[in-house]
């Protein structure tokens, strides 16, 4: 097969022979998606046939789809928690996987306020690395010349803990960045970073960000793309530049490193980088001291061709901010992955954010799809369909079976089928199921928000005051973004109403009630700002209902939305605000100790 016919592209042939092989692999996998899925399921069930979990359901070594679907139940994390806890506590028998569990990957989703623990095995790193290796060959089809410069990517590790049984528990990207796959990756001219490994692997978020930004400024003429995992991370990096450019410019002018950077490995590496450059320092000072930061990305890094960030799902709220800072540069969403499994990639990465679709790679795991009806609260679990049998335009919840020992596991992602590449479906990520609020990697659902409001409102009892109604909003106009909670209060004794101090404490009480991922974002990562309560006038939520009814809602079925984003509703709420209150301090957070 000729390299220019491997994957159709308006930009012509693959950039090199290595790319041609990667693109051919994509074609082979997607052309034979159903056969690959059958093989994957057979491999998973055969190798794990003697595990306690599969023996419990009397699969008896059978590995065909129909028997699997008949005997193995569809499960949630809570269903698997007893088995996961046993592994975490040190049980090394083959409970879920015949291969030893090498570590736990902590999900950004939570259960009972703590991160979920996803079991993984060593070979999963190879599978993740395989998907990563496909990204640049696809991108090179659309953006030529990426081998002529570098990528400024803001990449970070997060805290890790050990379970009582001694297994590491850490986020999937922390696991990857600390692996030999990443640290000893072979040189690839199409995928060179300005950030040194020493900065990426520094656990101190300030030192890591400062060093990565400093290196990116030194190599501003070499930078062809900027990126972070999530859009929120790139917005936070630009805000960091706004706050710290004077010190960064000073370091560049003098060729000396900020005394706040004390990590030995960073200091040693930066000794090779630091050099006086007054011309560059003057340029940075001149650009960053301007009041208008519109287009700052292309002003500082003039050769930038695109931004490599996730802007689907909850991250779409950052698109206007990124457009402002970048002058409307394309935003590439390259891959779809989670702690449980890496799923697929975007074969048209330069499309508009609203048109992003991910092609599921059938070799990554075994995939089933639970039809999702947004107007129904019931799931039709018996009607799961296979990867190649989904219907264009329909929405589904993703259900996975992995090599690491998850069987028919509900991921919680809602996807809409947009089309097919060969026989593999392409999906638009709609949302996380049941998630109301999200600023960064945090995910807060309705039950958790309700619990936080209830806990905070206990502080109002001595003032004979209660929360009549509430709703919420993820405000990303501030950097970092923060949760806004609208409260309508019933004050029975106006002479003993709660003070500003009390309402500020209510903000903190809400934060203390939210999950560990949220609190880590507040305390350790500085990726979430202080929670805000806006007290609205009495009758505001009646007006909200009247507005909804005027737009066709049924008065009999109307429920107060617990999260709002529609601009006219936000305008109505904000026009009724009587007072605003913020959390006065940081909530409690320490790295989780696994019991």
Automatic annotation (TrEMBL):
Q: Is Kinase among this UniProt entry's keywords?
A: no
**What keywords is this UniProt entry annotated with?**
Ligase
Cite the GH3 C-terminal domain residue spans from the record.
448-565
> For this UniProt entry, what's an example GO CC term?
cytoplasm
Q: What InterPro entries has UniProt attached to this entry? A: GH3, GH3_C, GH3_M
Record-annotated membrane-spanning stretches: none
* Xref: Pfam families: GH3, GH3_C, GH3_M
Q: What is this protein called?
A: Indole-3-acetic acid-amido synthetase gh3.1
């Amino acid at each position: 097969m000729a390299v220019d016919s491997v994957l159709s592209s308006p930009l012509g042939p693959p950039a090199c022979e290595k790319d041609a092989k990667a693109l051919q692999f994509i074609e082979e996998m997607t052309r034979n998606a159903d056969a690959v899925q059958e093989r994957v399921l057979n491999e998973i069930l055969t190798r794990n046939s003697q595990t306690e979990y599969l023996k419990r359901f009397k699969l008896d070594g059978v590995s065909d789809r129909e028997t699997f679907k008949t005997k193995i139940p569809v499960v949630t994390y809570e269903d698997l928690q007893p088995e996961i806890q046993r592994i975490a506590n040190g049980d090394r028998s083959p409970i879920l996987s015949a291969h030893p569990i090498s570590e736990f990957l902590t999900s950004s989703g939570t259960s009972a306020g703590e991160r979920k623990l996803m079991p993984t095995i060593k070979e999963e790193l190879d599978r993740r690395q395989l998907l990563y290796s496909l990204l640049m060959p696809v991108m090179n089809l659309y953006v030529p010349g990426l081998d002529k410069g570098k990528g400024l990517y803001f990449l970070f590790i997060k805290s890790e803990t050990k379970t009582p049984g001694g297994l590491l528990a850490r986020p999937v990207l922390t696991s990857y960045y600390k692996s030999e796959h990443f640290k000893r990756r072979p040189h690839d001219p199409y995928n060179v970073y300005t950030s040194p490994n020493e900065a990426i692997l520094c656990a101190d978020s300030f030192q890591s960000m400062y060093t990565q930004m400093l290196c990116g400024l030194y190599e501003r003429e070499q930078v062809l793309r900027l990126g972070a995992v999530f859009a929120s991370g790139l917005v936070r990096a630009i805000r960091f530049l706004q706050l710290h450019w004077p010190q960064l410019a000073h370091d560049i002018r003098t060729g000396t490193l900020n005394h706040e950077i004390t990590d030995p490995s960073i200091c040693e590496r930066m000794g090779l980088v630091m050099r006086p450059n007054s011309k560059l320092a003057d340029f940075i000072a001149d650009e960053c001291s301007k009041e208008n930061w519109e287009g700052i990305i292309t002003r500082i890094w003039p050769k930038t061709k695109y931004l490599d960030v996730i802007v689907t799902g909850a991250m779409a709220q950052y698109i206007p901010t990124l457009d402002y800072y970048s002058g409307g540069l394309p935003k590439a969403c390259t891959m779809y992955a989670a702690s449980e499994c890496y799923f697929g990639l975007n074969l048209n990465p330069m499309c508009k954010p609203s048109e992003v679709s991910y092609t599921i790679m059938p070799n990554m795991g075994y995939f089933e799809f639970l039809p999702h009806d947004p107007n129904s609260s019931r799931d039709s679990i018996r009607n799961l369909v296979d990867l190649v049998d989904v219907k264009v335009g329909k929405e589904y919840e993703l259900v996975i079976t992995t090599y690491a020992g998850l069987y028919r596991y509900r991921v919680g992602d809602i996807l809409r089928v947009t089309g097919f590449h060969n026989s593999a479906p392409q999906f638009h990520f709609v949302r996380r199921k049941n998630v109301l609020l999200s600023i960064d990697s945090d995910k807060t659902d309705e039950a958790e928000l309700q619990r936080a409001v209830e806990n905070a409102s206990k502080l109002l009892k001595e003032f004979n005051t209660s929360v009549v109604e509430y709703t919420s909003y993820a405000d990303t106009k501030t950097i970092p973004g923060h949760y806004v909670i609208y409260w309508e209060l019933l004050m029975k004794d106006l002479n003993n109403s709660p003070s500003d101090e009390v309402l500020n404490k209510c903000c903190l009480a809400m934060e203390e009630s939210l999950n560990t991922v949220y609190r880590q974002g507040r305390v350790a990562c500085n990726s979430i700002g202080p929670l805000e309560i806006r007290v609205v006038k009495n009758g505001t939520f009646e007006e909200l209902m009247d507005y909804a009814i005027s737009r066709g809602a049924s008065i009999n079925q109307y429920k107060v939305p617990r999260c709002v984003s529609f601009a006219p509703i936000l305008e109505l709420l904000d026009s009724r605000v009587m007072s605003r209150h913020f959390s006065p301090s940081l909530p409690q957070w320490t790295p989780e100790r696994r019991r």
